[in-house]
Amino acid sequence: xxxxxxxxxxxxxxxxxxxxxxxxxxxxxxxxxxxxxxxxxxxxxxxxxxxxxxxxxxxxxxxxxxxxxxxxxxxxxxxxxxxxxxxxxxxxxxxxxxxxxxxxxxxxxxxxxxxxxxxxxxxxxxxxxxxxxxxxxxxxxxxxxxxxxxxxxxxxxxxxxxxxxxxxxxxxxxxxxxxxxxxxxxxxxxxxxxxxxxxxxxxxxxxxxxxxxxxxxxxxxxxxxxxxxxxxxxxxxxxxxxxxxxxxxxxxxxxxxxxxxxxxxxxxxxxxxxxxxxxxxxxxxxxxxxxxxxxxxxxxxxxxxxxxxxxxxxxxxxxxxxxxxxxxxxxxxxxxxxxxxxxxxxxxxxxxxxxxxxxxxxxxxxxxxxxxxxxxxxxxxxxxxxxxxxxxxxxxxxxxxxxxxxxxxxxxxxxxxxxxxxxxxxxxxxxxxxxxxxxxxxxxxxxxxxxxxxxxxxxxxxxxxxxxxxxxxxxxxxxxxxxxxxxxxxxxxxxxxxxxxxxxxxxxx
Length: 509
Ligand code: FEO
Ligand code: CA
Ligand code: CA
Ligand code: CA
Fold this sequence. Notes:
This protein is mainly beta and about 500 residues long.
């Protein structure tokens, strides 16, 4: 019970200074092992771990029997996108073979891992599998079968799998983020843009259950899904649309969570209400076509109605949000819920358009501490920049003490003033309570041209799983590599990988 754990205002490590090394640098007393690198065969039918790992889901192997194993689990790994220099050969030609290699290297891996002695390893399991850009996926919710999705009820593939979330019934929510452009990048595959950009639910324990796209949660550049259960049993999910001047959303299910009925829970996210945050007056504005006249009255420049029904509203949730007064913010990345206070923390990573290169972390508190509330109060938690030492906050994860662990993403900012003081992308610790609240302490530094993504704890707090995404991303060619992190023996080609970091004391009871 996290509420029984007292807050800790200082980090359990000696912070490391900024660095530029092509290595994963950790404080004294900590070590890591490479656990699931790109290209590793892990299924009986020869499938490989995909590319550019992002969100990691940790599902204790005994979860469905009420257990909480910290040494045996199904991990889910999002594979966000590929680098054509490394995947499919060093060609940038759009051959069929190249496109197929790319489609196979994206999506999600479900991987059984076990800790034996000091070492984690991948172990064979019938549930080990890949969901990729070709997997058949069912559409659920108001847009299923609608004109907005060209009448489709099932679609092909999940792509752009950035961050995500886990439900209390043991499923993964994988978020389809940067899905624009694949129609062009994969010519001849019949790829339909309106079938991507949703939240997809996957059951790692049940390969026979077809993955479901949850159209009730809207279509935009889905970064994440922060899941919680409201006092009345309804599910609440906070989500960001990671784009400059885009919004933060909240989904509230119609049905209620029943811990004793897993089969029913798996349908909960098919049906619910979507809201967008208005930070001007601290309110959640409904995106229900029938209830919100502004959606019915929204017109394009040529005078045509923007939306004819709820499916249209959901399929272009960004336009809907702006039409009803949702507040555009500076690229909402990850969102997490504080385990002690219930406050909702969100990374606003940066917005070069507004000269905001460093970003900030904000937090908000729902009225009455009720996650289904219609109003909230918000505040700034930490601001990036030379003073604070971090920049461009991205993924967040809390520990049960209520400390926040954050990874940065300065990837897309080119010659901005950050790199001089920040060094490579890094992971930071923040206390959220006490005199030290909001102060950044650097825990880890990633290799060159990499981002650390998807951090998740084992339930005992002794292992932190992290993805090392896109090492060597800015390499011009295979002869001019900027990183060789994760390379196979005898090779210099860098490999995105999941690592397991050890050395933590674990949670005190
Ligand atoms: Fe894929 Fe917004 O990070
Ligand atoms: Ca991200
Ligand atoms: Ca997170
Ligand atoms: Ca990012």
